[in-house]
Amino acid sequence: MTNCVIRPIPLIEMEIDKSMLTYRLGFGEPYKQVVYAWYIEGAKEKMIVDTGISAEYLMEKRGFPARNIQSIESGLHGVGISPADIDTVILTHLHSDHVGQAAKFLHARFIVQKDELEFAQNPHPPVAMQYLGELFDGLNFEVVEGDTPVCDEVSVISTPGHTPGGQSVAVKTSQGTAIISGLCTIRENFDPPGNFSETMPVYPIGLFVDLFKMYDNLLKIKNAADIIIPNHDPGYVQTDHIP
């Protein structure tokens, strides 16, 4: 059995209010989160998790201050491939910063949860700005429901709460199971700050459609993973591979 390596591909840095990531904490505190794609090296298929977005598009459509770190083409070139080489894209959810460059992957299937796709096609007004149909309409979707194997080394895990049909990605590595969080997280969500760790093993994120599901699925990830990868944590910008 092949053990995989996860290669972080940092794409943009965006400045947000930290309370968007730490529920009811950090109001007024600027925080620079990073948007990544994640290349899974060693799987039978050439596979990435999420596609990221450009800073220009994000600023135009969402108004977030952002800067490009590198293009998706440059990031993939660094691991020896191009968008045209990718067989499978796993979309953790369909917010614009996770699906914004999907159209560049011309030969890929796109794995998404049924609940996420159905919601994204008719989003509730308070969150509709996060779902831009022009970014995902017409993609070659492979729709799944619940926890589903993708190949021998990789599976998706249903983790709704941040969105109605979010999913995380479990990868077999030489150091156990690594899980890329599909809820928009930083390290503090899995290592709660201050005294919160005495009452909560995980700390909620600030953006959600179901607070309780979101919390329970953070805990689900923490309990199942040997290696937790919070998908917006800036700590991976200089990381070449995990593990």
Mind sketching the topology for me?
Blueprint: E1 5-17, E2 30-41, E3 47-49, H1 55-62, E4 66-68, H2 72-77, E5 88-90, H3 96-99, E6 109-113, H4 114-121, E7 141-144, E8 148-149, E9 154-158, E10 167-173, E11 176-180, H5 187-190, H6 211-224, E12 227-229
Parallel strand pairs: 3-5, 5-6, 6-7, 11-12
Antiparallel strand pairs: 1-2, 1-4, 2-3, 8-9, 9-10, 10-11
Give the terminus-to-terminus CA distance. 17 Å
Q: Low-confidence stretches at least 5 residues in length (pLDDT < 50)?
A: none
What is the rounded Rg? Answer: 16 Å
By DSSP (H or I, 4+ residues per run), the number of helices equals 6
Query: Share of helix among residues?
Result: 10-25%
> Which class do the helix and strand fractions yield?
alpha/beta
Number of strands: 12
Output the strand order for the largest sheet.
4-1-2-3-5-6-7
CATH superfamily: Ribonuclease Z/Hydroxyacylglutathione hydrolase-like
Q: Give the class-level CATH name.
A: Alpha Beta
Mean pLDDT across every amino acid position: 96
Q: What sequence of helices (H) and strands (E) makes up the elements?
A: EEEHEHEHEHEEEEEHHE
Beta-strand percent range: 25-35%
Q: How does the overall form come out from the CA principal axes?
A: globular
User: What's the number of structural domains?
Assistant: 1
Q: Based on the structure given, which CATH architecture is correct?
A: 4-Layer Sandwich
Q: Using the coordinates shown, work out and report the CATH topology.
A: Metallo-beta-lactamase, Chain A
Q: What about the largest sheet?
A: 7 strands, mixed
